[in-house]
Amino acid sequence: MLTFTIRRLILAVPTLLFISLVIFLLLEFAPGDPMAQVPLTVPPEVKEKMREALGLGQPAPIRFWKWIVQFFWIEPQVLVDHVLGTSFSAGDLRVISWQTRSPVMDIVVQRVPQTLWVVGVAYVVGILIALPIGIYSAYRQYSVFDQLGTFVSMIGFSVPPFFSGVFVIVIFSVNLGWLPSIYDTTHRVTDWDSFVVQLQQMIMPVMVLALQITAQISRFMRASMLDNLNQDYVRTARAKGLGERVVVLIHVLRNSMIPVVTVIALGVPSIFGGAIITEQVFKVNGIGQLLITAIQANDLPMVQTLTFMFAVLIVLFNLIADVLYGLLDPRIRYD
């Protein structure tokens, strides 16, 4: 397993380099100009100097190489300097946002906690709700609980977050007045009362995201459980006199989790992307809203960095899913 993990990590390096090249080329040929939002009264020669200051006057291969060095070499040094108090990155040019003229990673680090508060909690809540629903729905197939779970899952799949978000705002904020409609990103948790306020403003965005997560994972869990409940080893275990709880929650569940692990692991990067709409609806000042504003402002370094971070998450959680396969099923060996 260790050899397999090291081999996959080494293979991830050229994979990520290729992905970064694809992202760079897509943004390079995409329509839009960073100078488009500059007032028309600015003389052309000033605009040209501004373009040169942003590095746009250099050839594309040089700009791509500079970004690679800054992201893979300088930014890790900045992290080491921040943790250990060293000065390895002193004087080095970092990835600079065209919109704010500040380092991209500093802005991302400021926004990540807001996204994790909402997206991370929603994903954990969605998984904790989805797994029991999927297990019990499969065990009690065609029961009232199973039909109700199927109905809720259909709603979760069918209703987009921009509709469900506005819907819960109208009910709980406008009509009932129970919850705030706008997420206050400046709020800080210092005592119990401030923690309650934080929970209140998290309820609706977490509810919208958790509905989608629960709908997806519960259906996969149910289908996988149904496939394993009819296998021969289940009948053998029951014939040996094992209790129904042991058969379902140990033998069947362990084998059923193998395909579900893939859905859960690969769903982490996708839910960060899917949270873009939810963050816009509830005004959560997180990574999703940062990406939208960067696209609108043609801030290519910011867009390139954020999309590449999503790609890193996909590669990383692919590896995590493969490792979990071996832990769940001893028959899987990576020799």
Report on the structure:
- The protein has 11 helices and no strands.
- With 335 residues, it is mainly α.
- The protein has a domain of 186 residues: MetI-like fold, CATH 1.10.3720.
- Helix 5 crosses helix 7.
- The mean pLDDT is 78.
In a nutshell, what does this entry contain?
The chain is mainly alpha-helical. It has helices at residues 2-29, 44-53, 60-84, 104-139, 144-158, 161-175, 192-229, 232-239, 244-282, 287-296, 300-328.
Which segments are poorly predicted (pLDDT under 50) over 5 or more consecutive residues?
Answer: none
Radius of gyration: 24 Å
Share of helix, binned: over 70%
Q: Class by helix and strand content? A: mainly alpha
In CATH's first tier, which class of the domain at 111-296 applies? Answer: Mainly Alpha
Q: So what's the overall shape?
A: globular
Provide the succession of SSEs.
Answer: HHHHHHHHHHH
Mean pLDDT: 78
Number of strands: 0
CATH architecture of the domain at 111-296: Orthogonal Bundle
Beta content: under 5%
Which sheet architecture does the biggest sheet show? none
Intertermini distance = 8 Å
Considering the chains and any ligands shown, give keywords for the structure.
mainly alpha, 11 helices, single chain
SSE blueprint and pairings:
Blueprint lengths: L1 H28 L14 H10 L6 H25 L19 H36 L4 H15 L2 H15 L16 H38 L2 H8 L4 H39 L4 H10 L3 H29 L7
Helix pairs in contact: 1-11, 4-5, 4-7, 4-9, 5-7, 6-7, 6-9, 7-9, 9-10, 9-11, 10-11
